[in-house]
Amino acid sequence: MSKYNPYENMLHVLDRAAEKLQMQTNDYEFVRHPERELTVSIPIMMDDGHVEVFSGYRVQHNTARGAAKGGIRFHPQADENEVKALAAWMTIKNAIGNIPYGGAKGGIKVDPSKLSPRELQRLTRMYVRRIAPFIGPDQDVPAPDVNTNGQIMAWIADEYSAMRGQWEPGVVTGKPLTTGGSLGRNEATGRGLMFTLENWCSKQNEQMEKLTMAVQGFGNVGSVGSLLMHRHGVRIIAIGDIDGSLYNPGGIDVEAAYIYANSHGRSLKGYEEKGSSFIPNTELLKLDVDILFMAALENQLHNGTMQEVKARVILEGANGPTTEEADAYFAEKGIEVLPDVLANVGGVVGSYYEWVQNKTGYYWTENEYNDKLQKNMKQSFEDVYAIKEKYHVTYRLAAYMLALKRVVEAQNTRGFLG
Ligand code: GLU
Question: pLDDT tens digits for 153-194?
Fold first, then answer.
């Protein structure tokens, strides 16, 4: 596998989008550079009394369309470059969802499974103190991402509010229901992926009940997405997590697997059902299925794995699972990629709905929330699809073209200084 830089990858797609739109470098050069990149050191007293210093990041990529917005991940691979790319993808994604935000992302280089709950809480709170001058409900609004959850978001809201001397739930989204969270938000990314597949099916005249699927990743996005697609009739024959890939050619009972994983530390290790076995993770990507649902990390489909893919469609639940090379290869082979910035936009659109409720203090029913999400996802899909058809480009390029147009228009209307 060649050396891979996700930010460079993003820039190449952006440049191709600009070219198709006949934009000059001058028109969009500002989008090629993050507005602000923050690196912080986070010293923590561990439970055994020794001090450890972690590296944390927050990148605000672009704020032409509104406050910076994007999740925070806790992962050993988090670094400046990864967070920078993830922040840029949020700029693109928020423009596609047509929500009034720019793009940001944060991360701490840490394996949270090695920390006690107290250490995790101290780490989160100290990170907030470090980035506090740069976040706020109208400035930059974090959310969950890989290995972060509602509990961590509640600590962020609490720490920030303590510093401000008043309760500020709108500083972060993805909070638990007890602390200003919204009904529907926890499932929003997975539900949005189900809507994306539904939207794709209606364009292609395909039926969900006839599709087979393999899923990589069974965290929040992979598990909720799989469960909802399974309920719509998709036959899921493999689900992979860190410990291996559960395989059942007759179709996995996703309801049972979901319950099992949630009560076994989000892992399927030890799960059994009739007809199932475990296969190595490397085999999952090679399965002869209609849809490959990528819901783990970036850079999974690359020049070392792409040739083995037999699926017709790649559904990107994770951010950046397909490298540039693999993307080009799939386009050439006629394998359709439903790209992250469109397919998983439900998460941040759902965050926007939570933020609106925090701002107004009026809370919606779950049905209201899901209806609005469905309408948004439909519109986002239609907007991208119209460009795809007009310019004869892939979904990904069409999505970038739409987003770039919207970001540039916003910046031009606001006017340039400097
Ligand atoms: N982490 C999610 C994403 O990558 C959600 C971000 C948000 O809600 O701000 O889209």
Answer: 999 999 999 999 999 999 999 999 999 999 999 999 999 999
* Topology (CATH level 3) of domain 188-343: Rossmann fold (3.40.50)
Q: Identical fold at 34-170 and 188-343?
A: yes
Whether the model clears a pTM of 0.85, i.e. scores above it, the answer is: yes
The C-alpha atoms of residue 148 and residue 151 are separated, in whole angstroms, by 8
What is the percent of the chain where pLDDT is above 90?
Answer: 96
Q: Alpha helices of 29-114 — where are they, by DSSP H?
A: 80-96
Residues in the chain with pLDDT < 50?
Answer: 1-2
Specify the 3-state DSSP secondary structure of 221.
Answer: helix
Helices H / strands E in the chain, number of each: 14, 13
Q: Which of 298, 351, 356 to mutate to test the pocket of ligand 1 (most atoms within 8 A of CB)?
A: 351
Dihedral, CA atoms, 398, 70, 186, 236, nearest 10 degrees? Answer: 40
Per the CB < 8 A criterion, the answer to whether 229 and 221 are in contact is no
Index of the ligand 1 atom closest to the CA of residue 146:
1
Ligand 1 site, residue 317, Cβ cutoff 6 A:
no
CATH class name, domain 34-170: alpha beta
Strands (E), 63-159: 68-69, 72-74, 103-108, 140-141
Q: Report how far ligand 1's centroid is from the alpha carbon of 297 (Å).
A: 14
- Which is the catalytic residue, given 105, 109, 175, 388? 105
CA–CA dist 382, 370 (Å, integer): 18
**From the CB of 71, is ligand 1 less than 6 Å away?**
yes
Atom of ligand 1 nearest to the CA of 73: 1
Which atom of ligand 1 lies nearest, measured to the CA of 145?
A: 1
Can you give the residue ranges of every domain in the chain? 34-170, 188-343
105 assigned to active site:
yes
- How far is Cα 222 from Cα 343, in angstroms, rounded to an integer? 13
Q: Is the CB of 44 under 6 A from ligand 1?
A: no
Buried b (16+ CB within 10 A) or exposed e, 101-124: bbbbbbbbbbebeebeeebbbbbb
